[in-house]
Prior knowledge:
Helix content is 51%, strand content 6%. It is mainly alpha-helical. It folds into 2 domains: 1-30; 34-68, no CATH class.
Amino acid sequence: xxxxxxxxxxxxxxxxxxxxxxxxxxxxxxxxxxxxxxxxxxxxxxxxxxxxxxxxxxxxxxxxxxxx
Length: 68
């Protein structure tokens, strides 16, 4: 009976901690949620390739000019 009660308390504590963590992250988001390591916003539109006008992601364009 004691083990069952301790298991319930443990499950409630884990659920509460998870909920508090999610609320904290969405209330005070870290800067890494908005931009990549190169400073490119995650939800940026595609850009035109200067050579052939085909659409590229901004990350592809940055990698091309960096030489990666």
